[in-house]
Amino acid sequence: MADIVIELQNVSYRYPVSDDYVLKDVSFTIEKGKFTAIIGNNASGKTTLCNAIRGFIPHFYKGDLEGIVRVGGKDTQETQLGQMAEQVGYVFQNPFIQVSGVKDNVFEEVAYGLENLGVPVDEIRLRVEEILKLVNIGHLRDKNPFELSGGQRQRVALASIIVMDPDILVIDEPTSQLDPVGTEQIFDIIRLMKERGKTIVLVEHKMDLIAEYADNLLVMSEGKLVMQGPVREVFGNPEYERYNIQYPHVTEVALQLQKSGMPLAFLPVKDSELAEALNLKGVVACD
Amino acid sequence: MKPNALLQLHPMTKFYFSLFILAVVLIVPGYWFAFSVFLGLVAISLLAGVFKEFIGIVLKALVSVLVIVFLMQIFFFPGEQVLWRWWIFEIKQEGVYYGLILTSRILAIGSAFVLFFRMTEVRDFVKSLEDKGMPPMGAYVVLSTLQIIPEMRRQANTIMEAQKTRGVETEGSLFVRAKAFIPTLTPLILSSIAGTEERALTLESRAFSAPVKKTSLHKLTKSRADRILPILFVLIILGLLVWRVVLWQTS
Ligand SMILES: Nc1ncnc2c1ncn2[C@@H]1O[C@H](COP(=O)(O)OP(=O)(O)OP(=O)(O)O)[C@@H](O)[C@H]1O
Ligand SMILES: [Mg+2]
To answer: Does residue B96 form part of some domain?
Structure first.
């Protein structure tokens, strides 16, 4: 059996002030090196799930937590918050809060986590240089983090986390403020992280990109984990339609065609598969 | 810009210098001395290239205090030798003398610290305190406050602009401006309170509480001057103390 790095068993959780449970009996496992996307409509509990994986629940957000969350084989309830930073990198949904507030340029901002981890200074400089280039923010290095645009902040936030080189990356909607080019770049970086063997948990609404890059899906609806499995299986399951979550565009089109009587060889989820799915091999597919 | 040797001194050296001025001014009697110390500080600010900011703050912040203190002393300090009298007011010789002593000392000590903060980046000063064993959380609080103040000012301006578009008067006399400003405080304070929770999480995600010893890109170096000057300060203070004691015993 493959290495399991994240495991949730019957996890339910309620914020201190909320009446209803925000996570309801959630169970799943994630294997090392897999790219898992969490999808679901607003307020379905995606961010809360990320908080549970990172240990912010229950260490920071109190409230009632039931069930077991294990990360790297250890129960997060028994791990200290400070010890998890090196293992799980968490990029928040809101890019405007992810500034340390004590650094006055982007280079130092990105370096901050490494300073806290006690990495030797020479190594910090090398690693930050590399990440600035990777995330394409070299030109911002001397800018004040408070004076960046939303998209720029999102990149800086991602850079500040991946520079710490955690084994697990939990990334909550990293492209909400980015244009299509910026979004592609972020996904490229995430793909690269996967190639480096990182386990990736990504919350995202852009289904085309998820279909392109992710291995597995977790579908959240009103606090329940309603579907899980390989991307193609989940999108291909007729049950998926019930939750009113977006399909990848190509899948949507293909389903429409199928409804109007056109036979499909299989259900395409990536743009490049459309022609083949429609048995139109040899015809050039445009998008 | 050519790096200035005075500015490049270690923050602690500059801080010790301010304390040194404080001690010297209190030890050596007479206002002439304290006033010449002030002139010395002005000279240093010129050498360090911070004269304009230095003198600006001294004039704005200190002078009004000094005038008030001085007036209080000349009118209310008890004494016999009346120099000038009008209605119930009288100025006494002792009051003038004591007023001069007090103001000259406040001027010298106050400007020594103004000069310190003109010559030292707070960031560097906090770093040097951290090197001396101040806990990282304390350092964080000081530094983040410094960063957040301009950010809050920016937010306050945004809110004021919004008020203006709704027709709220935001310019004019102090009273009008205060009236416009006070309602902005609530959202400002609320948003910064909401900010602290998120900030704590941000810090956590950046390994702030990782159980290891932190490193720092920002290194403060000590030159030879930084090692010699503090010793010199102590020696001079000791010398002055001895001189005072001898003077006191022979008189
Ligand atoms: N700090 C909190 N305190 C109390 N309730 C919260 C808190 N954060 C979220 N909730 C509630 O929990 C529910 C799930 O929120 P969550 O942020 O996990 O949703 P989400 O799936 O990430 O939504 P989105 O797509 O908008 O980011 C919501 O009903 C929300 O109101
Ligand atoms: Mg969310």
So the answer is: yes
Claim to verify: residue B111 and residue B229 sit in the same structural domain: yes
SS3 state at B127: helix
A22 lines ligand 1 (CB under 6 A): yes
pTM: 0.79
Lowest mean pLDDT among A162-176, A230-244, B25-39, B186-200: B186-200
Give mean pLDDT, residues A171-189.
89
Range of the domain at B151: 133-204
Q: Tell me the percentage of chain A whose pLDDT exceeds 70.
A: 97
Residues B16 and B140 in one domain: no
Are B155 and B199 contained in the same domain?
Answer: yes
Q: Is residue B4 part of a domain?
A: no
Residue A109 is predicted with a pLDDT of: 94
Range 168-207 of B in CB contact (< 8 A) with A: 195, 198-207
- Residues B181, B90 share a domain: no
Which stretch of DSSP H or E encloses residue A184? helix A180-195
Q: Which of the two residues, A38 and B185, has the higher pLDDT score?
A: A38
What spacing in Å lies between the alpha carbon of B149 and ligand 2's midpoint?
Answer: 29
Alpha helices in chain B (DSSP H): 11-27, 31-48, 51-57, 63-76, 93-119, 122-131, 136-165, 174-205, 224-250
Nearest to A108 among B208, B217, B219 (CB): B217
Q: Indicate if B149 and B235 belong to the same structural domain.
A: no
ipTM: 0.83
Give B-chain residues touching A117 at CB under 8 angstroms.
207, 210, 212, 214
The residue whose C-alpha atom lies closest to atom 18 belonging to ligand 1 is: A45
